Known about the structure:
CATH superfamily of the largest domain: Reverse transcriptase/Diguanylate cyclase domain
Order of helices and strands: HHEEHHEEEHHEHHEEHEH
Distance between the termini: 131 Å
Number of domains: 2
Number of helices: 10
Amino acid sequence: MRPPTPKKxxxxxxxxxxxxxxxxxxxxxxxxxxxxxxLPVGVYRTTxxxxxxxxxxxxxxxxxxxxxxxxxxYRAKDFYVHGExxxxxxxxxxxxSTDFREFELRRADGRKxxxxxxxxxxxxxxxxxxxxxxxxxxxxxxKTAERRLELxxxxxxxxxxxxxxxxxxxxxxxxxxxxGFFSFGLQQMKIxxxxxxxxxxxxxxxxxxxxxxDTYGHAVxxxxxxxxxxxxxxxxxxxxxxxRIGGDEFxxxxxxxxxxxxxxxxARIEESVQAHRIKDYPRLRLSVSMGLVxxxxxxxxxxxxxxxxxxxxxxxxxxxxxxQGTKP
Length: 328
């Protein structure tokens, strides 16, 4: 009696047999399938057009199916949230033999998850790609953690920016505080240097603010401070740097232009100050003393030095008012 013709080994067995130190035991294919089936990650083989040839149970569960055979009715691109991700993946595998990539996939019930694909392209004798072998790992948990960390870092950044803004702003007037004035003032001087233009630095002090606080209360004194802030905002240009640098002290750094000379700048401020009235206190008049210095940005000198000089000129203005009998 003629013995039966032995069954031809599968391609998987032939691949294993070709590897060194692999037993030629005919049961190797069963052990290989058992190993793949027990792996906790998705294992697959697809054709270049995306048809599934092999898949293990872990991949089926990952994609929302009970049995691997259910995947054979679909193509790989059916599970991509963004089809272009699949196109880029295949393009890279056509150029080189391996490509590791992360992308979003969609399960059979429509739920999305993130996966990392470790894939290689297997070419036939003619050099064309016969199929893709890959391992798919669910990295949704890691991606979620990364996203939470990203959001937390962004929140910290926004908080820091807010605190930085608060640290450079005067809480009452909303103008720059001393720190903000010097920060933006130095930037203004750099711009003026590039444009070869001078700046005017004005030091302004409210007259008799302590007396107003003692007589009317600090709430009314705050109205004077707010009045000066409003005057400076409306009188000066948006590009000028304005700050409240002390209790009753303000500073302005304005770039010189054809329409803005030294006298023009001081006259504008003084005119607005004299016209200012405080509601409910018609007899109370706002009065300020000012000192102005011309800032040549081409000359190396600290902004603090210019400010000190303008402060000195402002003090002389106060003394002049006293000598003339004009109550400052």
